[in-house]
Amino acid sequence: MTANEKAKAKTEQVTGAAKEAVGRAVGNERLTAEGRAQQMKGDARQAKEKTKDIGKH
User: Which residue from 37, 46, 45, 44 is spatially nearest to 15, judged by alpha carbons?
Assistant: First the structure.
């Protein structure tokens, strides 16, 4: 996993979690959904990079 891609994945996951938490706190369904989607995007990026790493070995 390249450091840059790993950082992007982690940033997306953390930002998504924060958006989801704020959305829940203020009762904003759209913000909550955006946060979940961003977390999933980060998870997918991380999984893709891990798969690449496994293929290299």
Answer: 37
- Report the candidate in 41, 43, 38 with the shortest Cα–Cα distance to residue 19: 38
Distance CA 13, CA 53 (A): 20
pLDDT per residue over 12-54, tens digit each? 999 999 999 999 999 999 999 999 999 999 999 999 988 887 8
Q: Are the C-beta atoms of residues 35 and 19 closer than 8 Å to each other?
A: yes
User: What are the two backbone dihedrals, phi and then psi, of residue 8, each rounded to the nearest 5 degrees?
Assistant: -60, -45
**Which one-letter amino acid corresponds to residue 7?**
A
